[in-house]
Design a protein that fits this description.
Family: Belongs to the aldehyde dehydrogenase family.
Keywords: Oxidoreductase
Strand content: 15-25%
GO molecular function, one term: oxidoreductase activity
Distance between the termini: 63 Å
InterPro entries: Ald_DH/histidinol_DH, Ald_DH_C, Ald_DH_CS_CYS, Ald_DH_CS_GLU, Ald_DH_N, Aldehyde_DH_dom, Aldehyde_DH_Superfamily
Largest sheet: 7 strands, mixed
CATH architecture of the largest domain: 3-Layer(aba) Sandwich
Number of domains: 2
EC number: 1.2.1.-
Strand order of the largest sheet: 14-15-16-13-12-17-18
CATH topology of the largest domain: Aldehyde Dehydrogenase, Chain A, domain 1
CATH superfamily of the largest domain: Aldehyde Dehydrogenase, Chain A, domain 1
CATH class of the largest domain: Alpha Beta
Shape: globular
Bound molecules: nicotinamide-adenine-dinucleotide
Structural class: alpha/beta
Radius of gyration: 23 Å
Number of strands: 20
Length: 484
């Protein structure tokens, strides 16, 4: 296993457009280590012209890639899965260095992120159409699926590998070419992946990576270029709305994986110990910097004190905060100073409004952007922490009396990505799961993400699905051929 500095030296830092290329003008921007605030390295700063070069490359090979037998496309994806798996430790360390998360979290992400290549290697050969006789007897109907064409993927920093592979896997399997614009905080993982895809036999131009510090200016020209046919975005609802507007010009197909504000609902009849275990995962996975993170805990009053006490004990005894690469760390730093300030502000706002700090609640100070695992109780309904996405290791807990009140409180949000419910009553579990306004529901489960399942939201959490048999559909158009 390479040392940190050997690893950083081996990762490409130029753009990836049919191989490594410098940005026009030779500009670069820094990538920071959130555990220290220090600069890890610098990467190429793409210009709008570079983005157009990537689209030139994608458009040039689109037809050939679509015509490549699906088995061959699948074999390449499967090779990528094998190679990521073989280099799992390198990917994990790289993600920890640029994103901050603790190494065990990064290892989980490597497994999860790689799996999208294996899953879609298998799905590539299962794109089916239909053949039927028209009910009127006037002819035959053939339904045929074709790749939508060149795609642009814009991804966030919180899962530097998986947020990309969830898009690249199905796009390539469907026969689409793709340009990825990773978050400027975490460009290295995607550059390493592009190199690895090339080594695995992916033809030049099928996958490009453009890193830039000016996301809007650089991706803007692509959205109005008629050769681009699809935009797939994961990130904040605010940016997603802007991109939907910008996509209207070219009437692009769009998939939007946006923000979340997940409720975690615990009923009196729940197995409280299991609920605490689930809460630890739902809150602290990825240091709380996950769109699926439980944002607020609604606990029925009969078990409110027991749940709160046990949750606080679990956090106090099992969370070890520190640099993500250090042995024993389970909670790394937040991504940057802005995020640290946002989390601290949300906690301070809740406390000023009357919330009690049961655990944590105070940043230890630099170097690095650390915030401790925190539990707030007696949080008043108007506190911002209940309505805004926290994106940090803070758990606000509120009580409720009846099932109806619990469900209403859970649904009282503009978002609708995922909800969690703990109960031992099957009827109630199904009733609540059906009543929750979210694209996904975890029943007695604190983690729901699975490459074999359709991931996605409703309401302000967006539309489109990633993973499952649904994931590849996002990259396919339906053609109807009428036959006599
Ligand atoms: P963000 O919206 O700020 O940035 C996401 C990506 O968009 C980055 O690559 C960024 O550089 C780019 N971007 C920003 N402004 C742009 C513009 N004007 N034009 C083009 N690109 C632009 O989000 P973030 O802070 O990186 O990520 C956190 C957000 O992502 C949270 O809201 C989280 O819930 C969401 N998220 C959602 C999912 C999901 O599957 N629903 C998964 C992970 C994260």
């Amino acid at each position: 296993m390479a040392s940190e500095s050997e690893l950083l030296q081996s990762v490409p830092t130029s753009l990836w457009i049919g191989g490594p290329v410098e940005a026009t003008g030779g500009g670069t921007f820094p990538v920071h280590n959130p555990a220290t605030g220090e600069v890890l390295t610098r990467v190429a700063d793409a210009t709008p012209e570079d983005a157009v070069r990537a689209l030139d490359a994608a458009a040039a090979v689109q037809a050939d890639w679509a015509a490549t037998p699906s088995r061959e496309r699948g074999e390449i994806l499967r090779t990528v899965f094998d190679r990521i798996t073989a280099r799992a430790e390198e990917f994990a360390l790289l993600m920890t260095l640029e994103m901050g998360k603790a190494l065990p979290e990064s290892r989980n992400e490597v497994r999860y992120g790689a799996e999208f290549f294996r899953w879609f290697a298998e799905e590539a050969v299962r794109v089916h159409g239909r053949y039927l006789h028209a009910p009127s007897g006037t002819g035959r109907i053939v339904v045929h699926k074709q790749p939508v064409g060149p795609c642009l993927a814009i991804t966030p920093w919180n899962f530097p590998l998986a947020m990309g592979t969830r898009k690249i896997g199905p796009a390539l399997a469907a026969g689409c070419t793709m340009i990825v614009k990773p978050a400027s905080e975490t460009p290295l993982t995607m550059l390493l992946l592009a190199q690895l895809c090339s080594e695995a036999g992916l033809p030049d131009g099928v996958l490009s990576v453009i890193t830039t510090s000016r996301s809007g200016a650089v991706t803007g020209p692509l959205l109005t270029d008629p050769r681009l046919r699809k935009l797939t975005f994961t990130g904040s609802t605010e940016v997603g709305k802007k991109l939907i507007e910008a996509s209207a010009h070219g009437l692009l197909r769009t998939s939007m994986e946006l923000g979340g504000n997940a409720p975690f609902v615990v009923f009196d009849d729940a197995d409280v110990d299991a609920a605490v275990q689930g809460a630890m995962l739902a809150k602290l996975r990825n240091g709380g910097e996950a769109c699926t993170a439980a944002n607020r805990f609604h606990v029925q009053n009969g078990v409110l004190e027991e749940f709160t006490t046990k949750f606080a004990e679990a956090m106090a005894s099992s969370v070890s905060i520190g640099p993500g690469a250090e042995a024993g760390t389970t909670l790394g730093p937040l991504i940057n100073e802005d995020q640290l300030n946002t989390v601290a502000e949300l906690v301070d706002d809740a406390v000023a409004a009357g919330a009690q700090v049961r655990l944590g609640g105070k940043a230890p100070g630099g170097p690095g952007w650390f915030y401790p695992a925190t539990i707030l109780t007696d949080v008043p309904p108007h506190a911002r922490i209940l309505t805004e996405e926290v994106f940090g290791p803070v758990a606000p807990i509120v009580g409720f009396d009846t099932e109806e009140q619990g469900l209403a409180a859970a649904n009282d949000t503009e978002y609708g990505l995922v909800s969690y419910v703990y109960t031992r009553d099957l009827d109630r579990a199904l009733r609540i799961a059906e009543g929750l306004e979210s694209g996904m529901v975890g029943v007695n489960r604190g983690v729901i993400s699975d490459p074999a399942a359709p991931f996605g939201g409703v309401k302000a959490s967006g539309f489109g699905r990633e993973g499952g048999i649904e994931g590849i559909e996002e990259y396919l158009s339906t053609k109807y051929i009428a036959l006599s």
